[in-house]
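Quick board copy: two proteins, each given as sequence then tokens.
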Amino acid sequence: MALSIRTQFAVTALVALAFVLPLSAVLTPPDPYTQLLAAGVLTAAAMTLAYALSYGGGYRALSSLTNR
């Protein structure tokens, strides 16, 4: 069953956030300000990637590459 584009975006965004928050804690020093700053930047990048994959046809392009 194919997901709607909105549901696909929500799932992609949640999965991206599940990786962003621990990744920002691991990659930055133990300073709360730096960790929040890195989390904000990585969240913006993850949301942009989720939008491009869901609404920009990224998933269709990836599936056509893997089906060759």
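And the next:
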Amino acid sequence: MDILKSFTRLGSEWIDKFSNINESASINECLPNNGALNHNIRPILTESRLCGSAFTVQASPGDNLILHKALELIRPGDVLVVSYGGYLESGGMFGGVLSTIAKEKGCLGLVTDGSVRDSKAIRDIRFPVYSGGINIKSTTKRVGGKINNPINICNVTVNPGDLVFGDDDAVVIVPKNQVAEVYKKAYTREKQEEVTLKKFREEGVIPFESNFQKIFADLQLSEE
């Protein structure tokens, strides 16, 4: 089926919990496989934060017809995740008008490996957009696509309902069947980092030092 109107979304409790994680790296380090999208998927807004349930779209380079259909179907709490196969010179598929409609329908943001346009308008309405580039070339509205099927973006598989987390560093995808385990590990990791810094500030101890001493000794690095 090309267009699926319903799918199992993440419960709001998981979105709330992951929203309190500080860093995308904390989440990605706790995944069994890489979930981080490529480094060039950058936020249009500075100090961006994004956390929601993936609404997946497979689109054709140079055409944004399927995005108009997607806007009919999105629900509050969804994040549009759009695969264009990484084509950046085929036009800006998503701009100020579509961003405004998406936001007013309760969509939490857009993630795409394609290009967008109208970056000022996107910033003005404070709509979180992560894209591979900015491009003002025209698009067509003649080619179909798929909605809420599994997609591949930056060599990461995204299924509808997966958790999407974005900050100023990166976008990370957490498969919905792994959210409980990954959240527990990421929360614990960040709490441990707080303990590490507290120990350094109070005692002047760099906790990693003892762990690395044997490695440095084995490498036989010269030292003054």
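Board note added afterward: The mean pLDDT is 94.
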